[in-house]
Structure formats: structure tokens, C-alpha cells
Batch of 2 targets.
Target 1
Amino acid sequence: MDFSSYQTNNFFDEMMDQKGQIREPYAKLCQKLKEIPIEEIQQHQFIADRMLLNKGVTFNVYSEGTGTERIFPFDLIPRIIHDSEWQILEKGLVQRITALNMFIDDVYNDQKAMKDKIIPRSIVLSSKDYLKECKGFSPPKGIWCHISGIDLIRHSDGKYYILEDNLRVPSGVSYVLENRDLMKRTFSDLMEDLNIMPVLNYPLKLLEMLQYVSERSDAQAVILTPGIYNSAYFEHSFLAKQMGIELVEGKDLFVENDIVYMKTTNGPKRVHVIYRRIDDKFLDPLAFNPDSMLGVPGIFKAFKKHNVALVNAPGTGVADDKVICAYVPKLIKYYLGEDAIIPNVPTFLCSIKKELSHVLENLPNMVVKAANQSGGYGMLIGPTASKKELEEFRNNMIGNPRNYIAQPVMSLSTVPTLVDDHLEGRHVDLRPYIICGESVYVTKGGLTRVALRKGSLVVNSSQGGGSKDTWVLNS
Amino acid sequence: MLSRVANSIYWMSRYIERAENYARFIDVLKNLSLELPPTLKEQWNPLVMMTGDAALFEAKYSSYTKINVIKFLTVDAENPNSIYSCVSKARENARTIRDTLTIEMWIQINELYLSVQSRQKTKNWTDETLNAFIKEIIDGSHLFSGIMHTTFSHGEAWNFSLVGRMLERADKITRMIDMKYYYLLPKVEYVGTSLDLLQWSATLKAASAYEMYRKTYPRLTAPNILEFLLLNKNFPRAVKYCVTRAETGIHNITGTPTNTYTFKSERELGKLRSELDFTDTNEILKFGLHDYLDSLETKVNNIGAAISESFFFN
């Protein structure tokens, strides 16, 4: 195949610069691709799709009724990052998550940042996932957010920005591992002599962290899933399998004398640490939503007595609010005395009058997001929105300014993607996964999500997104 | 292991086995219909009678035609026991325990499901299509249990699967004999005629038992065939073999010494196994074959219920 007709269209393209030169991280790969006829690449893509289907690497789509499984489309052309660039990102992510963990512990205990007016108390306390039940509490080892997936984008200026912090139950890491596996099985020729850093040890790091926070060596760790209809069920089972621990549903657990047990064929067995993939509000019908069928009655009390560790700790979501996200650079400065290594996407807070009126004036050029929704829901993309949608969001923002933020439309970088019989640039973001245990671990690379529709900026799997393998090249 | 996981692995195996046996049932009738004397009409209703879903069938279809019966038993999603439904349920169970299964097992069950699902569009069930479908199901089930046998540790979970598969098979073999004996033969006068033996040999073939039977007995007679399908201890689709294996499976799980019991399920299994050890075909025929088969089905059902009670916390 050749790259002569490949267009970068004034975006930052990860493979090709504006002059049509191949960027350095892609040099070797492009050399190899030039030798391969397009039919062969299409054949590899066909095999990869087939493997995904047979392996059942799927996610569920909510809007199409329960049980609708779809494969998460995978594109063979990888996203490549050079190690020198990656090291800076990794430092920035470690810095950010360290400050965020300090912030969450502060929120539920001393509230210093609020007293020192770094962040308004009203904003923090009105965060949807602020959990008053956690006041005065500190989880084992003081860690709240053990697992996060922070979204990064690269703008047309070539710089990386933080798009959002996913601190509650971020999903997608299984695709990082599956994509690499798929790549090895279908197109290993491409990977030879490139010195790609491995991603394989994530499950190991995850298990080490679970054991670390359980504060005992013989800890029984489990993953708690809402069940097979959850959109990320594949990932829950995948991780349980990779770690060799039980995948449990709420009905498999019970609490007696504030100790958590699972029901086994040999009777009850104590559980010490739970990687829960259930939202706070559904975790315990006694403490929160009484209608929850997914949770375990009494588990929150067991958690507060330190009889079981919950990962991430309930209440962590307080910091996963798009308004609070805007304050993170200030929080980094406050807690660590450092400047943020990776900047935020410029964010306008609708709760601030001046900023709201700026947003309303420029609405067709803005991206508006509800403060605490994820998965591409509750979002307005100004340039492509209909009049009706613009009007709807305008009213919502005026009615409930605390619940909205706005950002200029960022031009996500592009990566060549197979479209029929040629390559076209498609927009991508990047979600590295971070584990906070005894030390902080960041996956080498992360999940590159790609908006497969031409021109689209929405990379979410529920809205036509796919993914790519992400290679960090060791220098 | 988790009770829920034990429950799912048990049912996953039962449903796969059920799908396989339904394919075998259809095979019996399909073969018979080809060699029927001209004076007799093809009859497809026994298939539905035997599965116990006649009421559902009659509510949906106007008559017991070949095509209606085949559709009902193969791809009808509204029949909870159709092959499609069985394979779907097996896969649903497998999905809930994906972390427990090996990737090879999961891929096999998923592929089987995808191929059965693609058959739902089939409008015209020619004999060729039907043959291919039957083979696909039987091969798919064999492949699955083979993969399980060779990739999955033979520990507790494996034993739950074994118990599930064996109980399901014992139940279905019993029904298959009953279909032949009770429903298929038009009149008592036909006993011992060539039609009778034709039906018996079709039954043997559908149970993949014909060749092994021929190695064991010199002549094709109804009592011998009965003895083989009910009381043979070595043939893997004979009821006694299945019950004995299920009993071993349960004792492997509990660690209770054989010939003793701690759980009700062990006791019920032991009782049934020793009954099969010490009875013979004369006694069975004297009791009445149809009634005997009925009581076997009830006992197997009770064992299933006792297992659920002892291990699944339902």
C-alpha cells in the first residue's frame, strides 16, 4: 500500500506531519506497510473481526434493550507513541492521581483545600457523588481511587490535554490487553523489531494492589459485577480470569456481624477485598438505594469498620465531576507544590456568571457536558448540534448551571484507519489506566479509542467508536 | 467454589447435552420415515409427546407435520427446550462464568451458538439441511465436552459439569426408549415384527449405540437392546453408565466415601445405582417398561432437585 493519497486535513496526524513527512515513531511501521498489498491488510482485518466475534469480545448497548451484544470494532493500524513523549505523560498522570487522592481524603476529613479557598465548598458538597456517609473516614492505606482511566487528547498544537478524569469504575482496560493479543495473532510481522513495550502485566499489578490494600497476605479478593447485562461484563470476567480470582454477583455475597462472606459449595468463605464494578449508590441497599438488587446489604458498614476493602472506595466519585476536574491544576499546586505537567482542556464553568454568558454567546462552537455523566451521554457538540438541541442545552444550562461545563471544540489528533481499501485519518483519544497501590503504576500506552465515522469526534463505544492497539516504543 | 458458578456450570452442561439429545431424537424419526412400509403413515407427533411440550406445540401449530415439528424442536425461540433455546441457555450460563471456563471452551460454545443462531433464518428444511444441522449439533457438543476434558482441570467445577451432563443424558436416553416403546409402535401386534426391530435399530443408531451393541450381542432383540441401553455399565450412553458416573462425580465433589452418604443427593444416586446394578430386563418387563421408564425419569428428576438443594443455595 502507499501513503501518497493520505490526507492530514489540517489536523494533527499521529503518522504524518503537515508537509506529508512520516513522523519518526511511525517510520519503521510505514516501511513495512509499504511492502504489503492492501488486500492482505484487509484479509488480516477480516480475521481479526472474526476472532473478536468468536471470542465474544463484546459490550452491551443499553439503548437497544438488554442483552444486545456488539463487538467493539478494532482497527489494525496502531497508534504509536514514542517513549520520550510517553515518559512525560506518565509523570503527569502520576502527579495528577496523587493529588486527586490527597484531595478526596481531604474532602472527607480536614477540608483544608476548601478552608484555604482553593476550591469552593459549595462545588464540592454539591458534587453528585459526594458521599456524606464517608465523612471522617479514611480507607485502608489512605487510598481512595485505586483504579482510574484518565482521558487525554492531542490538540492541533501537538500538545496533550486532560479531557476528563474517570475515577469511579473506568472500563476498557481489557481491550488494551485483547487488542495486543489480537495484533500478535493476526499481524505479528508488523510488530517485529519495533521494540514495543508490553502491556501484559496489568492484571498482575491489579492483584498486587488488591492484596496491598487488604492489609493481609492471604487475602481473598473478588470482583463484584452487576452481571451479564452490564455493558462491561466482558471486562469483569476477563479481569477475574486473568487474576485467577472469583467473579461474584451481589447475590453471591452476604454480610454477617459486619464480615463479608461469599456462598460457596463448601459453605461461607470470608472475603477481604472487593474490586467492585458497581456504582456507589447500588452497592448497599441498607446504606444507599434501597431498591438495588445488585448490591450486598450491610457491605458499607463492613467497609467502614475496615473489615473489607472496597476498590475504588465509595465516595471517590466526588472528584470525578467535570466541574471539579477544572480545579485539578490548582489542587496539584496546592497539595504537591508543583505545576501540572499535563494541562486541562480549557474549561468554562457555567456556575460562574461571566463564564456562562461567554458559553451561551459561543454555544455553536462549544462542547457542553453534564458534570457527572460519562459514556458520551449528556453531551452537546455545538458545531454539529441541531437548533433544537442547542435550545434544549441552553435552557438546561441556565436552569442548572452547576451541572454543566463547556469546552472549546478541541481538534482531536488523527491516526490512519482502514476504510474499505485505503487509509483515512480518524480522530482518537487516549485512556491510560492507572493503579494506585504501594506505588503508582501506569499502563504503557492505554486504550486508543477511535471515532470510526468520518469527521466524528465522539469516540465512545456506545456511539460508533472503535479501538486500536497502542504502542509505546522503547528507545 | 461459588455456588452460583457450580449451578451455572451444571446447567451449561445439561443444556448442551439436551441440545445434542434433541438432535438425536430428530435423527431417529428422520431415519424411520425413510424406511417405513407403504401402509403406514409418517408420524412426527411422538417426538413432541416425548419432550413433554405438546401443549405448547398445539397452541402454536395447527398440525403435527414434519416441518412444524422440526421447526418447533430446532429453531423455535418460543419453545424453551428447542435446540436453539438450549444452546442459547448453555451460552448464557457460560457467559456468567466466563472467568471460570477456559478460553477454548468459551470459544467453542460461542461458535456453536452463532451457528445455531444463523440457522434461525432457514425457511426450507430439506433433509440435507436437517442432516447438516443434526451433525453440527452433535459434533459441536462432542467437541465441547472434548475440549472441556482436555483443557479444564478435573476438579470440583469439572465434576459439577460431569454430573449435569450424566443426569441429563440418563433422562434423555430413558425418554428415547420410551418414545420407541410407547409411542412409535402402532399396535401391540407389531411386537417382534420387522417394523419393531427396524425401530429399535434406528433408536440404537440415534444413540450412537448400534456398533457397540453389535459387539456385545449376537442378535438384534428387544430385550437385549433394552439391556444394553439401560443396564450396560461401559457404554457411555447407557443409563447405568450415566448414573454411575454421576455418582462418582458427586462423591468427588463432597469427598464422602463411596457406598456411604452425607447429602440427600448422594443417597438418591446410590439407591438408583444399586437398583440398576441388581435388576434385570425380565424384572423390568414384568413391572411394565413404560411404567419403569416413568419411574426412572422421576428418580433422575429427584436427584437433580436434591443436588440443587445441597449445593446451589437456591
Target 2
Amino acid sequence: MERIPILRMGELLLVTIQVDMQDQMAMRLQDDLTNAISKFGAKGVLIDISALEMVDSFIGRMISDIAGMARILDATTVLVGMQPAVAITLVELGLSLPGIATALNVERGMALLRRKV
Amino acid sequence: MSDTLGEAPLRSEYDIVLARQLVRRQTQLLGFSLVDQTKMVTAASELARNAYVYGGGGSMRWELVDDGLRRGLKLTFTDAGPGIPDTEAALTDGWSSGSGLGMGLSGARRLVNHFELDSRVGEGTRVSITRWK
């Protein structure tokens, strides 16, 4: 199955989700990312979902879980680039992703992460 | 002439992705706004996953509907799974039969104009949703 690449930039990890993910792919990303945080001692994770046209409860939970696991591993997660239509739908669905730092785009997300780590 | 109804299987995880794409395409053809497309696609994703994961697989039937004033898309998800004993409880936020968040059914209902849940224990579950343009 296709894998979502994780880029390493010093103490930060960068993930750009550009495909309509199957559930297994989302689960694998969760595994890969937590392993990468541990292996590289990463202090921050930036997840760019600007290409995602939909976030349902499964993907929402995956993002929440990643942020939670990263926190336990002493890394901060910032979610960036959510499309407005996706944000509107997600809140109506009942998910507001509490406890996850967000930023409008990659640039602001990187600035936020650099301040935090 | 394009089709006005059809059926897609929900027998693998990839079928859930295909179902989302089918609903996206149909809502685009109907001229739904981007937000309305996204709501319908997200509701379809929740229900398709329920049919596959909890219902052991099933199908999604889609149909272009017209009530004389407006046009819309109706989706019916059917599975032959264990069914839901208490459908009223199943429609409350946080209710979960499995490992999910419990937002699937109740959340999907909020994203559409019409929602109908029919489930019989031991026989299966059918959920119909409609969203108007």
C-alpha cells in the first residue's frame, strides 16, 4: 500500500497528506510518525492537510491520536491548511479537534512550531 | 444521457474511498456548493465505513431525486450485519458499537437534510440520507 512520506527538517517532522486516504493508510501514518518522532528525537510535527477535501470522524480521530501520542513523546503537533469547507463540516459532524494546535498555512505553522520547540 | 441511479459495493476499505469519489462527482454534477458537497461526501464516508466495518460489507445505492422544487442526491447504505438493537441510543453522540468515536451516525445525520435509519437485529441495517441543492 502507498505510504505517506515523512520529511525531517532538523528537530521537526513534516507530513503532507495529498491523497484520499484509505483507513489502513491513515493507521500506518500514525505508526510511522510515532516511530519517526522516537527515532529522530523530533520536537515538533507539522501536518499539512491543505489537499484533503474531506476529514471524517476516522481521519479526525487519527489526527487527534497522532497529536496525543506526539505529546507523550515530548513533541508538539501543528495541523495546517484545513480547507474552510472541511472545517465547517468537521464542526457540524461534532469534531472540533480539541487540544490540537492549528495554523492557516505551512508558513504560519512552521513559525508556531519554532516558537514552541 | 447520464445515469440517475446506481449502486456501488462496500466490500473493502478501498470501496469507501470510491464511494466518497462517486458522491463527490454526483454532487458536483448537481451543482452543490463546495460546503454542501463536502457535507454529503463526509456523511457518505461515515455510513460507508459503518456498513463495511460493523455491517460486514454491503452496498451504497445512489439516486438523483427531484421533489418538484429542487433536486438532490439520495444515498441508501445497506448491510446484512448484526443490526443495531437500540437505534435511538445509536443516534446519540458518543454511542459506539466498536472502536469508533461514536460520532458516525449522529454526525452524519447532522450533515444532511433527511435521515432514515432502519435496523433489525440479526438481519442488517439500512440508512437513507438525502441532501437537497
